Amino acid sequence: MTLTILQITAIGILTHVAFMHGENGLCHWLTTSSLVWGGKLALFQLYPDIWFMRKRLKTRAEPVQGVPVVRVCPPDHATFMNLLTFIDALLVAIWILLQVGVLVVHGKQCYAHAPLVSTLAVVLLALALLYYLPTTLLLIFRRSRESRSDGGDNIEIGPLPQSKVDRIDLVYYIPPPAPAPALAARPSGPVAGLRRFGPTSRGLSATSDDNNNGEWEKSFQRMPRAFLRIEKHEAQCAICLDEYTAPPRVTGEEEGAIPGSATSASAAADAQGVPEPLRWLDCGHVFHKRCIDPYITTKAAKCPTCRAPVKVQSKGRK
């Protein structure tokens, strides 16, 4: 394909040189577009293909160490190649539109004075359409299938009934302990992947890390749901803008209180300083139950922060 287009480009250039003067100048655009197409092949097609092939061979030879970080500014080589691929598709679309326009407007004149240039331009356009049109349609079809099959029947975009919303995890907010350098260095964003603790974890055997973490959870009044540690600067509902309230600290005899005796779902929305249950969405963002439930059941089953579809799981997260 590439060699054929390069040959057509070379013949078009030689033909154009023989018909440079007079009315044959109408074919100037067709020859110029052939030159542009040849440069595009060298810069946007051959070079990326060689780079991707070398990268694939290198990836197979060397195991991946950790998660690669793609820089945006200044762009690294991988980011530049992805940008080059996007620009390539844009230039192809522009080139095809301009080539069709010139052939429609000046096709008869060019064919009358330089039939070879006009014929080669038509052949070049046909080859480009035969190559890029099926590829583009196949890519669109594949992406549409992936978007439909991603997540199966668990992802729903429209409003959800309350029965499905009730299957989304509920947690209670607690701040991290003061000597927590690992948590303090965690970047802002969704609180996915954090450990959760609850009343059921007490009395179970645990490692030294679990024992240290459990001591911090035991210092709070026991709640009917699991605890979720959230940094202070992230402990705010993005819907009502109210800060999350942690359960009261307990000591000694208070530690054996009955779970859930300090709060109720009806009084949580109105009482100041009383901990409220939080919905922990699959994307990692957390909201007040009283705020996110009406949003999901009446507007859309999407996260108000990142717009990710709400994923309803048959069982809670582990």
What do you see in this structure?
The longest helix is centred in the first third of the chain and has 37 residues, at 77-113. This protein has two domains: 2-60 and 71-150, no CATH class; 154-311, no CATH class. The strands form two sheets. Strands 3-4-2-5-6 form a five-stranded mixed β-sheet. A two-stranded antiparallel sheet has the order 1-7. A hairpin with a 5-residue loop joins strand 5 and strand 6. The protein has helices at residues 2-18, 28-61, 77-113, 115-149, 162-165, 181-184, 208-218, 265-268, 289-298, and strands spanning 155-156, 170-174, 196-197, 226-229, 278-280, 286-288, 310-311. It is elongated, with a radius of gyration of 31 Å. With 318 residues, it is an alpha+beta fold.
Average pLDDT, all residues: 67
What percentage of residues falls in helices of 4 or more residues? 40-55%
- How many separate structural domains? 2
What's the Cα radius of gyration?
Answer: 31 Å
The termini sit apart by 53 Å
Layout of strands and helices, then pairs:
Elements: H1 2-18, H2 28-61, H3 77-113, H4 115-149, E1 155-156, H5 162-165, E2 170-174, H6 181-184, E3 196-197, H7 208-218, E4 226-229, H8 265-268, E5 278-280, E6 286-288, H9 289-298, E7 310-311
Parallel strand pairs: 2-4
Antiparallel strand pairs: 1-7, 2-5, 3-4, 5-6
Helix pairs in contact: 1-2, 1-4, 2-3, 3-4
